[in-house]
Amino acid sequence: MKKADRLNKLEMSKIRMTSKKMDAIEASGQKIIRFTYGEPNFNTPDYIKEAAKKAIDENHTKYTDYTGSPAFQAAVAAKYERENGLKFKPSQVISTHGGAQAAYLVLTTFLNPGDEVIIPNPMYNIYRIIGEICGATVKEYKLKEENGFQIDLKEMESLITDKTKMIVICSPSNPIGSVLTDENLEGLGELVKDKDLIICSDEMYERLTYDGVQASSPAKFDTMRDKTIIINGFSKAFAMTGWRIGYVITPEEWFEPLYLHTGHQVSGMADFIIEACTVALNDEPKYGTIEKMRAEFDERRKFLVKEINSMKHFSCLNPVGAFYIFMNIKKTGMTSDEFCDWIVENYGVAMITGSCFGSEGEGFVRISYASSMEDCKAAMEILHKADEDLTAQGK
Ligand SMILES: Cc1ncc(COP(=O)(O)O)c(C=O)c1O
């Protein structure tokens, strides 16, 4: 039996494939420093684990409403008001199986075959694949290093047509670590204010920003407020990747199709996880665990940026968000794929090839500094050696 035609372009995540390859290399005895997964090396904060244990003991083990619960919805709304200065009604919130299902839900709820969805290039690649599964035409706007990885508004204008149903933005960006400026978002707002389309805003990393930068949601701007569906979750900021929990915040008019559809996709989230996440959102200001993790990421980020930019063949812009560095490797003369193979096979450092995030990722590799400072230090020593070896080869 053949799979459904709409799944023809389905492929294994290159990030997962790289990790499997690393497992195989390590099984043969070679030690590898992994800069691959976007997974914090921290454990989930204790107070959240305790809340989950307590919830199980109190028999929060039943079906949940697809929204999560009224308390969960209220906690999300309160978080956005407190931290992001944005007022939403709790009734605009729907729980999801991580950020990944949130993306699947939003795109599959609205995109018909023939609709156009405009996504960033480079971009964490679930959006391209889901758009294709929907049979939509996936168009891309380029985020270029020479533009500080901001949206080129002229290009964006040229991509928007009567068929454009959705524009995806992701700030802070995976894989770049860049943050869209308010000025850039204002420009986007001017372009779309009279258009009948959805802004799908992936805000998975909005708590992880540096150098005093804040990542604004497009919902902050009057021009986009009623068009924006926010995707957010717990995986990155709360170090809860394995809990598989996230949420969307939607304008009221789009609530019903999202709510009904997610019911058929996942039938609600785990009861005790909803309880624990409600505690996480409400009590985090008391514990400040995100800030502690963020401060450690920041230390690694500063160290890596300084080291990388001191080498001859590598460079990077200062990334002010997420936990990624998009390292420019063009001076090595290798493609991103070649470089990733070369650096892991000869030096034991694993990175993700930029090309797996889109054509604009060619010439770059993604470094995830969600691993430890110890790994960052060891990897930079090795990278210096690789840099010297390239120089010795006349490159
Ligand atoms: C930009 C972005 N969106 C969504 C996700 C998916 O998040 P989750 O692990 O909560 O499914 C990720 C995970 O890497 C991501 O980087």
Short summary of the structure?
The chain has 395 residues and is an alpha/beta fold. The protein contains 12 helices and 12 strands.
Which SSEs are present, and which pair or pack?
Layout: H1 14-27, E1 33-34, H2 46-57, H3 70-84, E2 93-96, H4 98-110, E3 116-121, H5 126-133, E4 137-142, H6 153-159, E5 164-170, H7 182-192, E6 198-202, E7 228-233, E8 246-249, H8 255-265, H9 271-287, H10 289-309, E9 324-328, H11 336-347, E10 349-350, E11 352-353, E12 364-368, H12 373-392
Parallel strand pairs: 1-10, 3-4, 3-5, 5-6, 6-7
Antiparallel strand pairs: 2-8, 7-8, 9-12, 11-12
Helix pairs in contact: 2-9, 3-9, 4-5, 10-12
The structure holds pyridoxal-5'-phosphate.
